[in-house]
Amino acid sequence: MKKSELKSYIKEMIVAELSVEEGTYVGAAAVAALQKDPKFAAAKDKITPVNTLKSGGSVTLENEDFEDEPTAKDIAANASIAKLQSKYGEVVKQMKSVVNKYKSAEGDEKQNFVDQLKNLTKLKKEIEAMMNPSMDDEEEI
After folding, report:
1. Contacts for 117 with CB less than 8 Å, ≥ 6 apart
2. How do residues 89-114 score in pLDDT, each as one tens digit?
3. I need a surface site. Which of 4, 8, 34, 92 has the fewest CB within 10 A?
4. Can you give the three-state secondary structure of the chain, one letter per residue?
5. Structural domain boundaries of the chain?
6. Residues near 124 by beta carbon (within 8 Å), at least 6 away in sequence
7. For the whole model, what pTM was predicted?
């Protein structure tokens, strides 16, 4: 290796070791600059990086993977799930009411309440199936 090649190689190695990436903060003096960084403002954990800098370490902020905003289809699906959940709550409430009436009933009246409970149970299971579709029904990604 020529002397000029060796010098350029050493220079590149030194620059690579000493260069600071964008979003990298070093030392306790960099706490104020870190807190002004928008990536830090979006970060969930803010205490750990500050403590690292105060102890003399370095912190590199990376872009976090943000989830895509929900589409209109996602919002509509969530709205229908909310409707199903409220309907489910109503059915459970009706079932409790029928059970209380069943307890106080006598004779043939009990059979009417049993039939109502069977119908409400079927409806409840249908709503559960709509809220929690099986893995086989889901589309593959």
Report:
1. 95, 98, 99, 102
2. 999 999 999 999 889 888 888 888 89
3. 4
4. CCHHHHHHHHHHHHHHHHCCCCCEEECHHHHHHHHHCHHHHHCCCCHHHHHHHHCCCEEECCCCCCCCCCCHHHHHHHHHHHHHHHHHHHHHHHHHHHHHHHHHCCCHHHHHHHHHHHHHHHHHHHHHHHHCCCHHHCCCC
5. 7-60, 72-137
6. 88, 91, 92, 95
7. 0.42
